[in-house]
Amino acid sequence: MRAPASREAEPEDGADRTPLLGESQPGTVPTCCSARYNLALLAFFGFFLLYALRVNLSVALVDMVEPNTSLAKNTTSKVCPEHSSALNVPRNTTGKKYSWDADTQGWILGSFFYGYIITQIPGGYFARKIGGKLLLGFGILGTAVFTLFTPLAADLGVGYLIAVRALEGLGEGVTFPAMHAMWSSWAPPLERSKLLSISYAGAQLGTVVSLPLSGLICYYVNWIYVFYIFGALGVFWFLFWIWLVSDTPETHRRISPTEREYILSSLKDQLSTQKSVPWEPMLKSLPLWAIVVAHFSYNWTFYTLLTLLPTYMKEILRFDAQENGFLSALPYFGCWLCIIMSGQIADYLREKQNLSTVCVRKTFTLIGMIGPAVFLVAAGFIGCDYTLAVAFLTISTSLGGFCTSGFGINHLDIAPSVNNFFYRYAGILLGITNSFATIPGMVGPVIAKSLTHHNTVGEWQTVFYIAASINLFGAIFFALFGSGEVQDWAVNGRHLHRN
Description:
- It is a single chain.
- This protein is an all-alpha fold.
- Helix content is 66%, strand content 0%.
- The two termini are 28 Å apart.
């Protein structure tokens, strides 16, 4: 394969600052069974398990708590009539029950995020130092092991359970920064959207599968097996990850010479000789804060629905428990499909239609944030039309998947891979943005629950208004201040194809 020709002259202003790959003939490099797509597939299953380990407690907790202590301060809305026919199927009732009130349950569910927020920025820093492979692998392994200890912790007392959940959050907190750091060395610029969309789509599919599957395990077996099954799968995945993955193309044992040369040549114009983290200019970077605001805004809606959608389905739409698990998972299945589809479309627009990086990132962010805001507000105004309610909530969450190819991978545009010292700013940037984006997971559901003590349609409309307004603000802010260029603080003394 012919390497890209060197460019001695500085391009005119107005050109895209992303490296030109047309000369490197990417079409001649196979994708099937390639090292970079194998990495994406293993990452897909890793994030699948991460989100399964994250959300399974939300379902299992319903079966762990004695019914008379659950939702003590809330009432069920009677606006919408019952419409589900109860199924006469035998269920397991051997699972141990605990007398945890609503406030205690809130602390249990929120404790994950208190651990999660702590390791975001350190995760990006350590990914620079030791590489993303070990950090991501041991992060998922730690989460899986603590998940296996969850039934024991619950038996010992609520304080132990809260501590175990916080430790799970600590483990998961390093995973996204570590993965971003790895992709900064593995993802050719014109394949970033596809590769990152494949790997991160596992998170949505993990939610889709875990919600109904955890419900079925609780119903027919015992809630303790929710933690044993998913925890064991996490340990099993770790063995494959350590065996098959390498931090960089240079150190991969089974990569073909053609693919290695393709990846390295496509990234060489984005290399840096900088050896220290430029914290001050980084934190003053408006494009970075555009990602922060967009990520915070998107996660407000995402975490609010992730934690409270089952409650809305039960208390307002009056779906029974079995329907609730599957219908609550439906929006995340749509989101998973949109993540996969948007990655393909984004790379097509950049590579084949020659659209600039910033145009693609802003367009996909606007679709992925304004669209959900519109349908979320609409969902509050359809009354007891169950079909429209489920459809609007599904469309709202599904459209959010476009953000993965918008602000979600914009870190790699403004600070891509660097030199052989393996300094990766992308992991640090994701740690910064994800720290702010974890705050909605800590406070969003608490605010939403405080607004819905009586579970009326009007109260839920207020919750949807707040989420939609925050989404709209984040979309506008990113559209105004987002960038697709490599930032000056991310490079030092190297040529770039500049806007």
